[in-house]
Amino acid sequence: MSAKIVHISDLHFGPPFVPSVAEALLQEISSLAPDAIVVSGDLTQRAKRHQFEAARQFFDRMSDYPMLVIPGNHDVALWRIFERLVRPHALYREIISPDLNPVLHVGNAVLVGLDSTAPRRSISNGRLDRHQLNHSEKAFAEVPEDKVRIVVAHHQFAPGHDRVFDVSMPGARRAIDCFVEQRVEMILGGHLHRSYIGSSLDFFPGHHRDRGVIIVQCGTSTSSRGKGRERDENTFNVIETGAQTLVVTHYLYFEEVGRFAPLSKHSFTRPGHTLNVAGYGPGLSPT
What we know:
This protein is 21% helix and 25% strand. It is of the alpha/beta class.
């Protein structure tokens, strides 16, 4: 059994939202016929009611597919200080979902969403609390060992891999260590508005050099807020979870034809399996 998962992020319903790109995204998702859709935060631009309602209507058009959605920092009021401090996720809970740390079982994969927004402490860079790491540990402890374990969080666990300045989420190394111990194979995220597909071993060796976590960052899927090499670009990812490999296909929107198309493919060997290509070890791939 396997799973095909569409990963979108940073929709930014509001002024930056691009309706024509959103329509192209819906068409591509329909043609892909995924087993599930993941939305890794920033549904809105300024956490306003009408923006959440627009996001809800958009999600309703994908109701044929199971969805895992988590909030991003833009889904918490920025300038409405009382709301941010007292009831930061009230509109999100009312309109999108009451569950900020959802769990989704699909095919041979288990996905745990973690709300990395920290509205009372960190407006932009986010944070994960210990109880959330305990939540993922409990969720993964209840599934068979051969299941693909995936964490979804909005904020990044590593700075961007280009000239745009970013910093990691506070406590990122502690979280990565916990995920390695929990045998998490992949993290899906957003926030940076540009894509990155690689491994936690690229920036943090950790305690197990043979058990890095695949990092899959999605750019902005439907807004004009792309950064770095994805400035004014829109992207999403498709993850295919096989018994022996995890494959990530990166899609880019091509304005001249008005549609998304695959740009690159990245294949990773799952722990415990050997890739029969000279010079490549477990978790690496020549593609």
